[in-house]
């Protein structure tokens, strides 16, 4: 399976690009709005195989890829819908909506109230399950909102170091939704520097 591609954009067709690498052109569904032909690009790839179809979905970060792969495990959410959700709402908004339990924040074309509620129910528990090791390793604070945000960020693939530094630099009195938004901003700003 293809997990990562680096190359030059040869062509752009709506939300699909062709990446040229070592003489081969890979067709990848991705957020193509800010991309241009001949631009160097690196993408984390989800290879989706279904019956007689093989599709590649590309993401700028491992966290976006992880979120996409969580979304497609939800009943009724296929790869096209998950990609549209990640593209239209963005990583931060989706994670905040899940943490806060706010289905109305997930509503977008193709996602109604019931699907949004199903996403929150399924993924909030998955985030907690995948982050359970962090809790077992003795990480508990007096702030349940911080613990919830910590566990969610671990579940999305961020490191202990990134999370600890982010949580240290923001107001611990914020609710879980605002904590996650601020933590993601801090992590993103540090990775862009």
Strand-and-helix sequence, N→C? EEEEEHHHHHHH
Task: Summarize model confidence as the mean pLDDT.
Answer: 83
* CATH topology descriptor of the domain at 1-60: OB fold (Dihydrolipoamide Acetyltransferase, E2P)
Basic shape: globular
Number of strands: 5
CATH superfamily of the domain at 1-60: Nucleic acid-binding proteins
Taken as a percent bin, the fraction of beta residues is: 15-25%
Q: At the first level of CATH, what is the class of the domain at 1-60?
A: Mainly Beta
Oligomer: single chain
Number of helices: 7
Radius of gyration: 18 Å
Widest sheet, order of strands: 1-2-3-5-4
Q: Kindly, what is the distance between the CA atoms of the first and last residues, rounded to a whole number of angstroms?
A: 31 Å
Q: What is the share of helical residues?
A: 40-55%
Largest sheet: 5 strands, mixed, barrel
Family: Belongs to the RuvA family.
GO molecular function, one term: ATP binding
Domain Helix-hairpin-helix DNA-binding motif class: 69-88, 103-122
InterPro entries: DNA_helicase_Holl-junc_RuvA_I (IPR013849), Hlx-hairpin-Hlx_DNA-bd_motif (IPR003583), NA-bd_OB-fold (IPR012340), RuvA (IPR000085), RuvA_2-like (IPR010994), RuvA_C (IPR011114), RuvA_C_sf (IPR036267)
Describe the 3D structure:
With 193 residues, this protein is α+β, with helices and mostly antiparallel strands. The chain has a domain at 1-60: Nucleic acid-binding proteins (OB fold (Dihydrolipoamide Acetyltransferase, E2P), Beta Barrel). Helix content is 48%, strand content 21%. It has 7 helices and 5 strands. It has helices at residues 62-71, 79-89, 91-100, 113-136, 144-155, 160-168, 176-192; strands at residues 4-13, 16-21, 24-29, 40-50, 53-59. A 5-stranded mixed barrel has the order 1-2-3-5-4. Its main location: cytoplasm. Residues 69-88, 103-122 form the Helix-hairpin-helix DNA-binding motif class domain. Keywords: ATP-binding, Cytoplasm, DNA damage, DNA recombination, DNA repair, DNA-binding, Helicase, Hydrolase, Nucleotide-binding. It comes from candidate division WS6 bacterium OLB21. This is Holliday junction branch migration complex subunit RuvA.
